[in-house]
Design a protein that fits this description.
globular; 40% helix; four-stranded antiparallel β-sheet; 8 strands; Aminopeptidase
Length: 202
């Protein structure tokens, strides 16, 4: 929310032991399900807001437990999956070893990359954050962000994350190719054995 706020214009309110979150993108407001104790009256009030929002998708980012609760209250309410919001979950061992036929093509590309480019992986730290930011600007020029506004917003979100890594509890990596930054990644721990990758660019 912090990094994307200039794009999504988030608002939140604490009400009846719940937190309500909304975002407004290009003039269209959408809401999240209440976060907190299950409160049918609050859910009904939220749906009233959704009805009057004027947005074709007024409710978004509904997780599986919220979906089950909402459908227990409103069995006929249509809820549709949106693949744009799906998470990709990978096993660390699979990414480290790339086993079997499913990863054959990736292994070939990776071996060619290692042999030809001699990449060096470094943690993103104080001494190379400016290089990471410079890379993002260069990446955006390469991708012509001016013609695709969302990419420009993503760049600004990443620059915000780079500027506040410690406060946000984020960590990062960069990859050098022939001494020059060619890729960066920003992530944070979800729990003891899972990382959430927020940004990857290369």
């Amino acid at each position: 929310m912090i990094c994307w706020n200039s794009y999504a214009h988030y608002r939140f309110a604490q009400l009846k032991e719940n937190i309500l979150i909304s975002s407004t993108i290009e003039g269209k407001t959408s809401y999240r399900p209440p976060i907190g104790r299950r409160d049918p009256e609050l859910l009904a009030d939220l749906f009233e807001l959704c009805i009057h929002s004027g947005n074709e998708i007024p409710l978004s980012l509904v997780d599986t437990t919220q979906r089950a609760w909402i459908l227990s209250e409103y069995p006929d309410l249509p809820l549709y999956p949106d693949r744009d919001y799906f998470e990709y979950v990978y096993q660390t061992e699979d990414l480290a070893t790339l086993p079997g036929k499913d990863y054959l093509s990736i292994r070939r590309h990776l071996n060619r990359f290692r042999n030809n480019c001699k990449p060096v992986v470094e943690p993103l730290e104080t001494q190379n954050l400016d290089e990471g930011a410079d890379f993002l600007v260069e990446w955006c020029e390469w991708k012509n962000c001016d013609s695709e506004p969302f990419l420009g917003h993503e760049k600004e979100a990443m620059l915000c994350a780079l500027s506040h890594m410690a406060e946000l509890g984020m960590r990062g990596l960069l990859i050098r190719v022939v001494g020059k930054v060619g890729a960066i990644s920003l992530f944070e721990p979800l729990n003891e054995d899972t990382l959430v990758v927020h940004f990857e660019k290369g």
